[in-house]
Amino acid sequence: MSTVSGRPRPRKTDQILLVDRCLAPEVADEISKMDGLYGIALKEHYGDQAAQQLADVTFLAEAGQRGWGVLTQNPRMWQVPQERDCIIESGTRVFSLDDPNANKTLKGLVLGRHLLSIRRRLKRQDPCFWRLRLQNVRKDLT
Domain range holding 99? Predict the structure, then answer.
């Protein structure tokens, strides 16, 4: 298996999650350790400097076109009209941690609790926007 940035490349059967810059790049590495998933940090895909200045609609559109999901901790993304329109038009599947101020442990618990549902939803091609909470998922777009 060849590598990119010292990591194995995704297998053809892997579901890919593009990890937004608001989450640590290590999140992508940890996702890639899970069978059938592959995480790509925004800075890994676009370069560090470009990723910091990149408009959200740019990576949301590309992720949708490539059939990738997006993992973020920006639940307000759905409230921004041009980002919401981009998600719908591009068919992007977005999963947002609902509490951006949560510590790493809580973020890990929330993501782990909903991982099976995320995997199932990634198999569908239509767009979604889910806000992940410890107790439930708020599906702004199912």
Answer: 58-141
